[in-house]
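#struct-help
A.M.: can someone run this one for me? Single chain, 297 residues.
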Amino acid sequence: MLYWVYRCIVKIVSLLPYSLVLAIGRLLGALYYLLIKKQVNLARSAICEHLAVSREEAGKITKAMCRNIGMTFMEILYMPALNAANIRQFVKIEREEALREAIAEKKGVVVLAIHMDNWEWLGAALSLYGYPLTSFIKKQPGESVNRILEYLRTKVGIELFTRGTGETVAAARAMKKGKMLGFIADQDGGRDGIFVPFLGTMASTPAGPAFFAQKFKAPIVPIFIVRDPGGGHKTIVCDKFYYEDTGDQQKDMYNCTRKMTGIVEGIIRRYPDNWLWFQRRWNTPYPGAGKGVPGDA
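D.P.: on it. Structure tokens below:
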């Protein structure tokens, strides 16, 4: 029942003018900043600590982040209005040639993405531009939420694989067919993650991107979406790079993950109000505290 309520809301929002969708989003973002104090305070503290800025500056970044979150939320509901004919009005992909070169290798492409700006529209744009995008997803609390997100993602043509299931095999098959496999790789990696420096603190980082890059000798292409102050979004396609296999798997996995994380850190520093700072990114305690950074000896 709740799923169909969500479907009705999505249908209504997708019929609204885009300018109104953004206006409602900015209002929701302002309310979020005023009412959801726990996450606002968590974000402000994380910005102060990891960007080494004043509390006043962190407050400005947090407020802008909340405004962006409100617009992103409304844009996600608006996704059924997106199609191959109009997507370029909303999202501009820069340096497409770099992406086409990676795909042309026919080894599959590991796409590195994060919770930057409207990450759902990043996937939608890549798919609607005609790129063969597949992606791992993480189940959300509540079956109705999972169903509506699956509906929105598949509607724009994204092939989905659920983490922790037998669909990992299907993801491998997709890579063998030369498709793009997307990872949202800025969440805490838990006990199975690889600890690398991230914004000045050791953080457990998902190993999936490095694993698939190693297994298929596939290029890794970091792609980030940011909100354009003039309207819409732009997608930044970074230079491809590869997993460097020296025979020392532990060190090679670490080095690859550290390189990816360094690129992620750079884009966050450039667009701090576009990232979700209230994520518990450093939730898993670093077991090697006081032992130095692994791999640097």
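A.M.: thanks! The mean pLDDT is 92.
D.P.: also worth noting: Strands lie at 91-93, 109-113, 133-137, 159-162, 180-184, 194-198, 201-205, 220-227, 233-237.
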